[in-house]
Specification:
Blueprint (H helix, E strand, L loop, with lengths): L1 H12 L10 H32 L3 H14 L4 H13 L3 H14 L4 H13 L3 H13 L5 H6 L4 H15 L3 H14 L4 H6 L14
Helix pairs in contact: 2-3, 2-4, 3-4, 4-5, 4-6, 5-6, 6-7, 6-9, 7-9, 9-10
Length: 210
């Protein structure tokens, strides 16, 4: 009996222990901590699902998963890039451009977004708008061996090829020659890149206007 009285006294000495409702803030705190810890896993799963959907041409599903990931993390490069790519592959160039530019605003060093927004501008024959983004990739220099091992696609080499074409279409032969020299010096076999890559002629006459 004395032991029970002492226990009651100890509870009364700490009133919050006697009131389960007051424990709610602690429960909420632990839930928030748990969400914070697993959030990267959730985002990675969403983006992986988006990539899988996109690989099968299910672009609407990919867009849905990307938007969920962006809701959790607005700076997630993979989500932005996959979302924009899905618009591009649907032929929705306006949304692709907006999304790539949003990705660049969130992270100016997003190499993938810089390259592909320039490619979309090139597809639209808007070469003057494409050039600054290709030039950004050029300014970063060639990829390291480790980078090429992780991703065999060379954004640097492709940007030089595209820059040469964009400068050609924009009637800037001096700049085109400078890019071709850089391309030749860095990649001795680059002549085939120029031969194999075709950009539609600017038959409209005003496509170079930003």
């Amino acid at each position: 009996m004395r032991q029970q009285d002492e226990k009651i006294e100890s509870v009364l000495a700490e009133p919050w222990l006697a009131k389960p409702a007051n424990r709610l803030p602690f429960s909420v705190f632990f839930v928030l901590v748990a969400i914070f810890l697993i959030k990267p896993l959730i985002i990675n799963r969403l983006v992986s699902r988006a990539d899988a959907y996109a690989s099968y041409g299910l672009y609407t599903n990919a867009q849905r998963e990307c938007k969920k990931a962006i809701f959790f993390d607005n700076n997630n490069d993979r989500a932005w890039n996959t979302l924009a790519m899905s618009y591009k592959n649907q032929g929705d160039y306006d949304n692709a451009i907006i999304t790539y530019l949003n990705a660049i605003n969130m992270n100016p060093s997003n190499k993938v977004a810089n390259f592909w927004v320039a490619m979309v501008f090139s597809l639209q024959r808007n070469y003057n708008r494409a050039i600054p983004y290709f030039e950004y990739i050029r300014s970063r220099g060639p990829e390291t061996k480790a980078e090429l091992k992780a991703d065999s696609f060379s954004y640097y080499r492709s940007s030089l090829v595209m820059l040469a074409k964009c400068y050609e279409k924009s009637n800037k032969p001096d700049k085109m020659q400078a890019v071709l020299e850089s391309l030749k010096n860095t990649y001795p076999d680059s002549s085939r890149d120029i031969d194999n890559l075709q950009i539609p002629d600017n038959s409209a006459g005003d496509a170079n206007n930003p």
